[in-house]
Amino acid sequence: MNKCVLSASGSGHPVVCWLLTAAEMKRCDSNTSEIFGVPSVVLMERAALSCVDVIVSRQKKLEEQAGQLGLHPKRRVLIAAGGGNNGADGIAIGRLLLQEGYDVSFYLASGEEKASELLKLQLHTAKAYGAVICDTIPDGEYDIIVDALFGIGLCRPAEGIYREAIEWINAQDAFVLAVDLPSGIETDTGAVLGCAVRADVTVTFGFWKRGLLFYPGCKYTGKVICTQIGITEDGFLNQTPEAFTFTAPVAELLPARPEDGNKGTFGKVLLLAGSEAMAGAAILCGRSAFYAGSGMVKLSCPTLIHPVIQTALPEAMTADSVEASARWADVIGAGPGLSLSDRARKELLFVLQQTLQPLVLDADAINLIAKDEALLQELIEHQQNPATRRKLILTPHPGELARLEGCAIEEILKQPVFYAKKWANRLQAAVLCKGARSIAASPDGSIYINRSGNSGMAVAGSGDVLTGIVTALLSTIDDPFWALCIGVYLHGLAGDLAAHTKGEYSMTSNDIAEAVWAVLVKQEKNYV
Ligand SMILES: NC(=O)C1=CN([C@@H]2O[C@H](COP(=O)(O)OP(=O)(O)OC[C@H]3O[C@@H](n4cnc5c(N)ncnc54)[C@H](OP(=O)(O)O)[C@@H]3O)[C@@H](O)[C@H]2O)[C@@H](O)CC1
Ligand SMILES: [K+]
């Protein structure tokens, strides 16, 4: 995957933003100190300074605005610190703010005897500058609260005095800055462990953590500011993080279109989609494939619905069966609106057993496979063998993934990364788990977490649009995982544009399809 990441950037701007787990961040921290020799206390001072910068710039702005009205905003700060290095950051922030003339109170929830070595050092220095450390929250009103109870070291639910402190912080009418992560948010999953601080701003150090992006964590962060404190990609050594999201405009991720190409060059897409009751799925899928750059699209569906398809999408061709068109296609997409009929099963069997082209499986194609243990085993065996393996993408929603796995949907929702990775490995395929933060997994262990999109996309037909986009991209992008990541990103951006014009309440999946072209001609906003 990393080769793709590097080669996808023609512009010089970063293409990906890494999303780290707690273990990855700890490894990077310790490599920076132990291999490169930057002392932890230096990193901590820079981390604290970066938070102080955020507080001081905000305060300056407030004071300028208030000064015009003859008001004087107060500078009463509470540092709420835990017993680890997140707490140590908090104490360092408090000491620096004291030196800036702020009125700072310190609350150390853990007590000094349980303090980490760096925290002891920070307490010593802060006290030398006059800090008074309290073991209960000092009475008073605060304008600014620095949440430094837990960072990446949170390892169990916040209870007792920690729960009380978090609930107290959330009840205050103050600006809350969370240090590294809002306390209570699990670094890897974004889960709330017990309860969590609701921050106005989260200043995170070096790299984004996955939990800042996943739900529900992302609802607690406020604005996320990722600051550079001297921990860089060098600290990964040869172990790059598993997960990333995109930062580049999607148009920069797509391969350049050869100027002298013809309709064959840009991909002959065969779609096994649509049935008597779901002709619209085939139309949405085919239309999206065109908008995502396909040169030719052929829809294999029951003869009865050919007229409606030809009317709605005259650019597409239709076929009665995949058999007649299998050789013609560069790439095949199967599933949208397919139904679970005997015809659908027969057609899918033909695709799985008689073709070798790159393939995208979605919706009923996945459901048909999940229902048929022998077929599933055959697919797994084919994919496990490098001699018979084809380029394969699966785009299930959690319900479809649960059917494949044979478990309850709740199980998938609890561990979407785990199951996406499991099936990516089992099928040697790029596997998506759709959701508010769709997750794509590659057989090499890489994870893409999608940030684009909105709740308006949770609407019938949205997945059919995605299948059309991804199938089209698979015809010109060599790596299925990369095609999937870009397709998911583009789909979400199109959804955002559709929401901008029609609103999340009223947009339909056709609006998403119709926004694809606009995203590709527009420079969309950066998401991270
Ligand atoms: N290393 C570096 O170079 C840099 C590190 N930096 C900073 O360090 C932070 C990581 O520090 P960290 O590893 O000490 O973890 P941290 O988040 O402070 O928590 C650990 C403490 O919490 C405790 N604890 C956990 N859960 C609990 C619960 N539910 N309820 C009660 N206690 C609980 C746990 O206790 P224990 O499990 O031992 O009982 C332990 O005492 C990172 O987020 C960043 O802010 C930056 O300065 C940049 C440079
Ligand atoms: K924190």
From TrEMBL:
Binds 1 potassium ion per subunit. It holds the Pfam family Carb_kinase. (6S)-NADPHX binds at residues 85-89, 151-157, 162, 180, 281, 337, 397, 464. Its cofactor is K(+); Mg(2+). One of its GO terms (biological process) is nicotinamide nucleotide metabolic process. CDD domains: YXKO-related. Homotetramer. It catalyses: (6R)-NADHX = (6S)-NADHX; (6S)-NADPHX + ADP = AMP + phosphate + NADPH + H(+); (6S)-NADHX + ADP = AMP + phosphate + NADH + H(+); (6R)-NADPHX = (6S)-NADPHX. The keyword Lyase applies. Residues 246-523 form the YjeF C-terminal domain. Catalyzes the epimerization of the S- and R-forms of NAD(P)HX, a damaged form of NAD(P)H that is a result of enzymatic or heat-dependent hydration. This is a prerequisite for the S-specific NAD(P)H-hydrate dehydratase to allow the repair of both epimers of NAD(P)HX. Bifunctional enzyme that catalyzes the epimerization of the S- and R-forms of NAD(P)HX and the dehydration of the S-form of NAD(P)HX at the expense of ADP, which is converted to AMP. This allows the repair of both epimers of NAD(P)HX, a damaged form of NAD(P)H that is a result of enzymatic or heat-dependent hydration. It comes from Gallintestinimicrobium propionicum. Keywords: ATP-binding, Isomerase, Lyase, Metal-binding, Multifunctional enzyme, NAD, NADP, Nucleotide-binding, Potassium. This is Bifunctional NAD(P)H-hydrate repair enzyme. Residues 25-237 form the YjeF N-terminal domain. AMP binds at residues 434-438, 463. The keyword Secreted does not apply. Its EC number is 4.2.1.136, 5.1.99.6. Belongs to the NnrD/CARKD family. K(+) binds at residues 86, 147, 183. GO terms for molecular function: ADP-dependent NAD(P)H-hydrate dehydratase activity; ATP binding; metal ion binding; NAD(P)HX epimerase activity.
